[in-house]
Amino acid sequence: MATKIRLQRGGRKGYAFYGIIIADARAPRDGKFIEKIGTYNPNTNPATVDLNFDRALYWVECGAQPTDTARNILKSEGVYLMKHLRGGVKKGAFDDAAAVQKFQAWKADKQKGTDAVRENEAKAKKDLAAKRLEAEKAINANIAKKVADKKAAEAVAKAEEEAAEAAEETVATAEEAVEAVEEKAVKTAEEVVEAAAEAPVADPTTEETTETPAETAEETPAEA
Question: What is the DSSP letter of 211?
Fold first, then answer.
């Protein structure tokens, strides 16, 4: 029976998650499978692979044919490297210990590369978060400035309104004072006119003819 190593899609819309399966080459894509040997999550950076290494190596050595994507995953996990090393052991090129040592050295280098990618990803996320924070601060500062300008404009408008009301009150008070003074002046003038009208008028003829006895005696010459 021809077998294939391929991916079986799972997850949800917009977040695909795959199972790594061994299936009959004639089976439909989402049909029955012989064995599930791992999972593949491409939504992380780097992609997350959870693989049963021994079973994957077994099926590769049994001649199972992987799809292109499955082959890349198996290569990245070192399955084909271990197959090559075991072939070298069988040919007598080196022993099992040397094969394991070579594989562990390769795995250590691969882990360094993976760690570097993760560090770069974390740094990129941190830088992006810092930029977003700065942008948010700038937006908040702009909003605060607009609010402060609006409050300042409202305060100026209120001060101008209060000043205008105070000026109107001052003008009204001055007008009332002027009216009061004018009214008092008119009243005083009316009182003066009334007093002048009620005062007795002296007769000038009477004043000229009226003489005292002493004045008459002075004017009459003494008899000799």
Answer: -
